[in-house]
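=== Given protein ===
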Amino acid sequence: MLSCKIERSIYNRRKRRLSEQINNIRLKLAKEFNEFKNCFIVDIMPLEVCEITRINHSKFCKEHQFCAPNRGFSASQQLSFYGYKLHAVCFLRGVL
């Protein structure tokens, strides 16, 4: 374990202060890596909120209809789930 850890509040302040510079670096790296901008790899995976048996007791994100989780089926895993479908879009060089 690290002996020189900083407090969480100090870390959060530093992160907020550097967020603009971090975003600029991320954008520059993304431009370098994405030479084929019209070629993408898309993957979809289930993001389970709770077990099927606990659907009636779950209150996760049910305040608004537009973000409420749904029942779904993952054909690749032969799995019924309650939650969201996570879509990941990736460029050929591996940038998400």
Notes: The chain has a mean pLDDT of 82. The chain has one domain: 8-91. Residues 15 and 22 are 9 Å apart (CA to CA).
